[in-house]
Amino acid sequence: MNSTTATAAPVAVESDLQIAGDILSVQHLLQPASEHPATVAEFVGLARSIAANRAEWEHLVEYDATTRWYHRLRTGPGYEVWLLSWVPGQGSGRHDHGASSGVLTVLDGELTEHGPRGPLTLGAGAQRVFAPGYAHEVVNDTLEGAVSLHVYFPGLTEMPMHSCSPALPEAVSA
């Protein structure tokens, strides 16, 4: 007699639980938002929520051809939110933010960030998160005005300027 052993093929089990739509819109399933942000993700979320609420900031924007215009929009425990406008050709100069980390969000227009890896074009809605000591220059290279939002944590206490001539070293990762 010849005996054959059959092996069962794995069977895909389908669940009768399916999630339809955007689970993030089901507020009662989410953890309540903290009163003040404490993580990078929460600071990014804060910047996105301010960006989405144009009524909070749009009426404050001014354009100044002689100097970069800025306005402190909000403060909280350990952080600051700044609104900046940029006329064509205006730039920040190469700088870092001392001990502060930050989130840069372009609200209107387009900005170019010149960092260690070269130029990066940032259009409306783009966000950049940076660590303490990260050196860059932000410039409006277009023919239209631009507006950006900057969240610093801890609040900005210094903005050391850097020479533009030497190349900035690449970040070293372990």
Describe the structure in your own words.
Strand 1 (69-76) and strand 2 form a beta hairpin. The protein is mainly β. Residues 1-5, 11-15 and 165-174 have low confidence and may be disordered. The strands form 2 sheets. The chain has a 5-stranded antiparallel sheet, covered by helices on one side. The chain has a 3-stranded antiparallel sheet with strand order 5-4-7, with no helix packed on it. The N and C termini lie far apart (63 Å). The protein is built from 2 helices and 8 strands. The protein has helices at residues 40-52, 54-57, and strands at residues 69-76, 79-86, 101-108, 110-115, 118-123, 127-130, 137-139, 146-153.
Features:
174 residues; mainly beta; five-stranded antiparallel β-sheet; three-stranded antiparallel β-sheet; 2 helices; disordered C terminus
| Helix percentage | under 10%
Overall number of strands: 8
How far is the N terminus from the C terminus? 63 Å
Helix-strand pattern: HHEEEEEEEE
Shape: globular
Q: Count of helices?
A: 2
Pairing-aware structural class of the strands and helices? mainly beta
Largest sheet: 5 strands, antiparallel
Computed Rg: 23 Å
Q: Strand share of the residues?
A: 25-35%
Mean pLDDT: 81
- Ranges with pLDDT <50 over ≥5 residues? 1-5, 11-15, 165-174
Looking across the biggest beta sheet, what order are the strands in? 1-2-8-3-6
